[in-house]
Amino acid sequence: YERTQAINGLLTGQGYILVEIWECEFQAMINNTPELQAFIERDDVKVCVPMDPRDAFYGGRTGNIVSHYDVKDGEKINYYDVCSLYPFTCKTGKYPLGHPEILFDPEDIEKLCPNNDISRVEGLIKCTVLPPDSLYHPVLPMKAHQKLMFVLCRKCCQLQNNQECTHTDSEGQLTGAWVSCELHKAVEMGYRIKKIYEVWHYSKTTQYDPRTGKGGLFAGFINQFVKLKTEASGWPASCDTPEAKAAYIREIEEKSEIKLDPDKIKYNAGARAVAKLMLNSLWGKFAQRANMDKTAVLYTYEELYSFLFDAKKIITGCMFVENESGDADTVYLNWRWVNEDFEAALSSNVVIASYVTAQGRLVLYKYLEMLGERVFYYDTDSVIFVTRPGDVEPPSGNALGEMTDELAGYGVNTYITNFVSGGPKFYSYIAVTPDGQEIECCKIKGIRIDSQTSEKVNYNTMRKLVERQVEPFKVETTSIRRLKYHTVVTQAEEKIIRVTSAKRRRV
């Protein structure tokens, strides 16, 4: 109620005439008026809310396609990773400049997008699209079940249907906001745009030109820290001769326009971590929410009451602090605005962040499209896939944005023989090095694999779990937590290990 009143005050304060009605009264009107019920069920009414640019901001693409696989004669499983995916899109991607032209009038949209043709649009588009009937790797993301999903039918996704789809076009179509470049790819792959509701069109853009070294928003910043990260990563495993090292330096300079100092190429975990943090934090700052929780230190009842009875604020926490005599004369109050519009986001631009992640997903999609049904698992910037005799492998290299072999650290030509996955960020594999040594790797989000947890969480237990030979089980682990009294502790926790494969239909 307080949030509603605060929003009402914001609207009336800007001069709008506001007509209010209680929800129960409006629901009664719907139930008793068939015409009103039919009206609010129309698609154009459901999506009449103005587009929030954050609606077009999605994260990385993660998922598993197979639950387990053992290689056969002549096969090998590869694990490739895009070198610095988001820094690569920050440097080489296209980004909008200035303020957008916002179109929501149907006539204006039709002029820019005749017959729903979006080829001239550069920006954000809120629309309804109909996915193709069959596409092994869908293009467009949607948020459902607190996950980022890539689906061909909205209704099947909502119902988590694992059978053949029998839904109509209107039930299967997707409505949302996406960056234009991702929609362009979707149209190329067979998606059909049914209706456009709003367009944010940018007439000016910038993109880095490797021939001139100019353009782009982040090129200079990215080059500086990619140089530091690459040098701190040490020499690649294949650089075992002076000639190979010289060729590596030339390759980086030719492909990334970055000149490495051979005397500084030495593994340095600290410098590498700092460089990686800088590379990935810049674009993330553009996506930061403005309405973060804040803390006020209060000393009087008047100050406390002013917060408690302010309809524009939500209290999220309260802690009384005692002085030396035992009297609680100070209050730490946690609060935030009821609506993000109450605070300007001076240092953020979610449109830029949306462009970064959308172009990053398209880089990954290029490899998913290339590999097709050979893909076993993918996670934002990496892909695990099988190679059979005669198959083409993705081109690899060491430069920014190129595919690198994640297994090369164990030795060149190392490959996976056995793979198992129970869902996103939940996989294990056994790899074989050129000298015949077997290496087991296990990854589960939120669990650190050490000598204690590895007894319960390993390739064999994950395989049995996926094959339903064992029930979900608990694992004890430790984590560092900050308590409300400003203390940091290491505490024991229990996590349940279970299969979470819910992003694809299983056959």
In short:
This protein has 507 residues and is α+β, with helices and mostly antiparallel strands.
User: Structural class of the secondary elements?
Assistant: alpha+beta
Measure the end-to-end span.
47 Å
Beta-strand share of residues: 25-35%
For the secondary structure, the number of strands is 22
Radius of gyration: 27 Å
Helical residue percent band: 25-40%
Q: Helical element count?
A: 15
Order of strands side by side in the largest beta sheet?
Answer: 1-15-16-3-17
- Approximate shape: globular
How would you describe this structure to a colleague?
This protein is of the alpha+beta class and 507 residues long. It is built from 15 helices and 22 strands. It has helices at 2-13, 23-32, 34-40, 43-46, 85-92, 106-112, 154-159, 169-172, 180-188, 219-232, 242-256, 269-286, 301-308, 350-371, 459-466, and strands at residues 62-64, 68-70, 76-82, 94-97, 101-103, 123-130, 141-144, 147-150, 174-179, 192-201, 204-207, 294-298, 313-322, 328-337, 375-379, 382-387, 403-405, 415-423, 426-432, 438-444, 473-482, 488-497. β21 (473-482) and β22 form a beta hairpin. Belongs to the DNA polymerase type-B family. Its EC number is 2.7.7.7. It comes from Bracon brevicornis. Residues 54-233, 257-303 form the DNA-directed DNA polymerase family B mitochondria/virus domain.
